Amino acid sequence: VLGAPLSPDRTAQPPDPKNPLRAGAVRSNGQRNPNYTSTYVFPNDFPALLERVPEPPAPDHPLFQATQAKGTCRVMCFHPDSAMTIPLMSVKEILAVIDEWINQLHELGRRYTWVQIFENKGAIMGCSNPHPHCQIWASSFLPNEPRIKDRYTSYNTRRPIGAVCSDPA
């Protein structure tokens, strides 16, 4: 789970009646959130990944390859109170968040190669909604950084310890 610190100038403010993440709010797609009392997960209204994507055209040259990038994006609200943050939540409320993260990882991990849960808090991270929430992205491909680390780990497990840095003499 990835996160970013909240800007230090945040002060408690009354809930915004136009906040699309609050319980009972109508989101941009016309869907109404239920009056949730704990965690709530729903499909992202503006997904970066789609489950149905067209096949890419055949390449003109073998150097240029393209493949489908399928996936799904979800939003998970941690708490119905827009002014709440994880450090202020009770242990029971935090455990509900963790349990739902685990549920999402298991569910999406059965269908997708990569599942990433991340929270971007504050305007500096590009998040304008202070409601306590995170993004859950699952994709049919392994992103570059994890793919490189995965290959390196795989390589090292097939070699004796220290083989990469050992003196050949």
TrEMBL record:
EC number: 2.7.7.12
GO terms under biological process: galactose catabolic process via UDP-galactose, Leloir pathway
Ranges for region Disordered: 1-37
Galactose-1-phosphate uridyl transferase N-terminal domain span: 10-143
Keyword flag Hydrolase: no
Keyword terms of this UniProt record: Carbohydrate metabolism, Galactose metabolism, Metal-binding, Nucleotidyltransferase, Transferase
Transmembrane domains' residue ranges: none
GO CC entries: cytoplasm
Composition-biased stretches (Polar residues): 28-37
Molecular functions (GO terms): UDP-glucose:hexose-1-phosphate uridylyltransferase activity; zinc ion binding
Pathway where it operates: Carbohydrate metabolism; galactose metabolism
Family to which the UniProt record says this protein belongs: Belongs to the galactose-1-phosphate uridylyltransferase type 1 family.
Protein name: Galactose-1-phosphate uridylyltransferase
Organism of provenance: Pararge aegeria aegeria
Native organism taxonomy: Eukaryota, Metazoa, Ecdysozoa, Arthropoda, Hexapoda
